[in-house]
C-alpha cells in the first residue's frame, strides 16, 4: 500500500464531512496540514519501511542532506531488511532516506527550466516516453522513477537531465534538503514482480 497523497486525504476529508464524522474530519485536516506545512522532523522510518516493503532497497542519509551517514557505505548498504532499517532510524531518527537505483527502479533527474525544456524537447523529438512509475518534486526539479534499464549513472545526458541507474541513488520523500521536502507529485506504483 502506498502512502496517501494530498488528493487521497482531501477525498477522505470530503467523505468524512458528508457523513458528519467530525473526529475523522479533524484528523484528516491535521494530516492535510502536515503535508502542506511539514514539521522540521518528518516521520522518516515509516516511509523507509514502506519502500522496503515494496522491494525498494533503502539506506540512511545524513539529516537534511544528500550524503550517506558517516561509517556507512551509502547505496552499497541499501537493504529491504526491516530489522536493519529500524536500527538505522532508531540511531538517527531524522536521517533522510536514500533509495538505491538500478534494482527495482532507475531515476531520470530533471533540474530547473533547462532540464524541463530539454526533457520535453527530447521526448517530443524521439517520441519515446519510458513508463514512469512515479514522479517526485525535488528542491531543483523533478525525479521520474522508471523501471530499471540495466544502465549505470550518467550526468548531463541532456542539458539539466541526469540519469541514476545501477550503482546510484536518489533522496526519497519525505526527506528534506535545504528546507525543501521531497514530495510525491504522482505516487510510486511498483509493478508486480519488480519489488
Descriptive keywords:
6-stranded antiparallel β-sheet, alpha+beta, 195 residues
Structure description:
The radius of gyration is 18 Å and the shape is globular. A hairpin with a 3-residue loop joins strand 4 (132-137) and strand 5 (141-146). The two termini are 12 Å apart. Strands 6-7-3-5-4-11 form a six-stranded antiparallel sheet. Strands 1-2-8 form a three-stranded antiparallel sheet. Strands 9-10 form a two-stranded antiparallel sheet. It folds into two domains: 1-37, no CATH class; 41-190, no CATH class. It has helices spanning 6-19, 22-36, 44-53, 82-91, 112-126, and strands at 58-61, 96-100, 106-111, 132-137, 141-146, 154-158, 161-164, 169-172, 176-177, 180-181, 183-186. The protein is an alpha+beta fold and 195 residues long.
